[in-house]
Amino acid sequence: MRYKHFTNANVDVSALAVGTWAIGGQNYGAVDRSDSIKAIHAMLDQGVNLIDTAPCYGNGASEKIVGEALAAVPRENVLVSTKFGLLPDVYSGAYKKVATYKSIMSEVESSLMNLNTDYIDFYFVHWPDVNTPIDETMAALSTLKKQGKIRFVGVSNFSEKQIEDAQEYLQIDVQQPPFSMVNRNFVDLMKWGMERGIDSMTYGSLGSGILSGAIRTLPDFAPGDMRLTFYDFFREPKFSKIMELLKTMDQIAAKHGKPVAQIAINWSTAQDFVGTALVGVRNEQEAMENCAAFDWQLEDDEVALLNAELERLEI
């Protein structure tokens, strides 16, 4: 495993992290709880030291699974990241963005209980709440830091301006934007953050699974599946473009005798502006294959070929 030093947080983080959106079991296909815990332990055994979750991943289910996994390992050996600010609306069933002082204080207690821990390493504002003054949100996080309930402050899906506004009141240690071979929309934001010591935990690192190469025809996902509603990878014309990209990835994978997913992980984590790549895992086999991506590296000409394909296909 390779590690990167996070500047503002002043901690070393594995270049690959456990992403747990899918194991929440809500709108992301079938999930086996036992397999999920074994997958997390397999990642940790391979040197991964960060687990990322959120209360809205299955309405607390993901956090509870992470809590079960944490019970079997020394807490000080694992960095835990979770979030706040997305609450279920009892009337619509959708999530609403709430980052008030009162709500944050309530949410953190719920997360600590779900995670079966006394503190959270990285605590993220999940999405900007435009209806709550940022100083109120930062005041809550400052209080939690003083209480020792959180160590570092993160923002997810924030713009440069929103991060600058937040930093008037409290240091932002890390940000969490989407990034992968098929989603490079926030490269400038990550580079901007890196210059200011705000390192990136990137989500969607395997394009919601499409960069694993396991899906080669348009899938018939259930209505409401997050892979359809949150991402555009499984919709045309992007789906066909990614299928073309996979042909090049197949060639490189065959040359090295490696799974296609490792091509994507190698490419992503080699970017200097990527602190760690969050990758979802459902079982031990996926965990082992993903971690094995760090046993080798893409050659310069292979990186150039992949970059050229991305430009040609306009992905």
TrEMBL record:
One of its GO terms (molecular function) is oxidoreductase activity. One of its GO terms (cellular component) is cytosol. The keyword Transferase does not apply. Keywords: Oxidoreductase. Gene3D superfamilies: NADP-dependent oxidoreductase domain. Transmembrane segments: none annotated. PROSITE patterns: ALDOKETO_REDUCTASE_2. Residues 16-308 form the NADP-dependent oxidoreductase domain. InterPro entries: AKR_Detox_Biosynth (IPR050523), Aldo/ket_reductase_CS (IPR018170), NAD(P)_OxRdtase_dom_sf (IPR036812), NADP_OxRdtase_dom (IPR023210). CDD domains: AKR_AKR11B1-like. SUPFAM superfamilies: NAD(P)-linked oxidoreductase (SSF51430). It holds the Pfam family Aldo_ket_red. This is Oxidoreductase, aldo/keto reductase family protein. It comes from [Clostridium] asparagiforme DSM 15981.
